[in-house]
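Researcher: Let's run the pair from yesterday's discussion. Sequence first, then tokens, for each.
Model: Starting with the first of the pair.
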Amino acid sequence: MLRKKNVVTERHGTIMTIGINRPEARNAVNQKTAAMLLQAFNSFEDDTSLTVAVLHGIGGNFCAGYDLKELAHNPTSIKSEQDVTKGPGPMGPSRIKFSKPVIAAVSGYAVAGGLELSLLADLRVVEQSAVFGVFCRRFGVPLIDGGTVRLPRLIGLSRALDLILTGRPVSAQEAYEFGLANRIVPNGQALQCAMELAKQISIFPQKCMHGDRNSAYYSVFDATSFTEAMQFEFDTGVQVILKESVPGAKKFSLGEGRGGKL
């Protein structure tokens, strides 16, 4: 009998789907699952033929965080490199700076470490009944997979502190109003809609898109000044002008891509 895989990866053309497969635990991540998630995302990063990854949960929930039952019975189960530059976080891929887009297809609960995993993504496609929240607040479990770093950047410090301090549930609609959710879709359609979005992104000239994406992240997390961010933007963008901008301009002059059509 084949053993169930805690993480299921599939390839759809240039798109990789990464599914957390522990529905009996609302897709809570244990040590084994964290290692498998890390391996899956490293494979995505290393494969130059892949354009977008879609992270989702199998069985109705995105992820309920780290498996507290495992932590309760085995306190040493969280084995993470304390130097964040030298090893993975407890949830697996949380310390990776992706070079390509990642989309989270969120259904059910995306709470505690599951919220942190959703924050890895560039975009979050969220089902109507989905719930976000720092539910680990009530159990004294800290956010150590980037939650306190990424969340304030995404939705602002005031709103982030509301979630971090209270641990309250946040609906899909409120998450959309915050800017945490990028799309709200009917229940059961998050993965399908995320795949459609991934296909749209994959059509565009990739070097230019990666450069603009990288510049946006640099300006938010790494630049120490407006001038430094502007310089990085120019230095990054100028590299693609001959490779993609000039060919794109020639297509435009021939009538391609006008009226929003690709």
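Model: Moving on to the second of the pair.
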Amino acid sequence: MNLDEIFKMVLEILILAGFIYVVLRFLLETRGTGVIRGLTILGGGAFVLFFVLIETLGLYHLRALFSDLFRIAVISLVVVFAPEIRRAITHIGDHRIMGRLFGKILRSHRDSQVMQQILAAVQNMARNRIGAIIAIEQVASLVPYTAKGTALDADVHNLMLESIFFPGNPLHDGAVIVHGNKVVGAGCVLPLSDNESLSKRLGTRHRAALGLSEQTDALIIVVSEETGAISVVYQERLYSDLKDAELKSHLGLSDTPSEALREAAGHA
């Protein structure tokens, strides 16, 4: 065995090991991991067993059939794991290296006046225990979620935000979506997180905020209707029961930016 063959063999092993690592990492982070890991182990074992038998015994017709079934299985996996694949692609686009490469700028942090209006509205609603959820668009577009609500084109103002979430308003149960300095949607339906490890005490608004954060890089503010507590969700992390100073920090209105905002700045 010459050096060229050894190099090719080592390269193939490294590529295969990297592929297996990525697949296992994906399975650990996806939904229903116990069932999925079990099916993956069974499927992988069956594949290896059939492949060895086919090659050893020279079952060429069965190999052709097995090859067709393998292609169908790959397509089926793509369909089954479509949400997870979309989430992975979104996070690749959100990575700071990609952000620097394409010169991405977080629009929602450019206008402090917009953040001041949102801050005032959130504080007032928290004092009056009015439930609310506000999604502030970053790099990833929220247009698909805006389409699931009522389209608006209004300047961000605290009184308008409070009126939208006032009990009895037809739009108060959904989310408000902010794009730049405009409110572009209200009463928007957001995807609920299916993370089984979340606390059972989390309400629908918090689960919706986490669900949106799993699929986009939006900065989401939630006001609890029961307690008036303010939470911020960003990059699948929930920062709950925030005080005024902490909320200002998350919104970029403080000299000491929050952890979420520092991460956001790293993507720019």
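Researcher: Give me one sentence on the second I can quote.
Model: The domain at 107-267 is CATH 3.40.1700.10 (YojJ-like (1).
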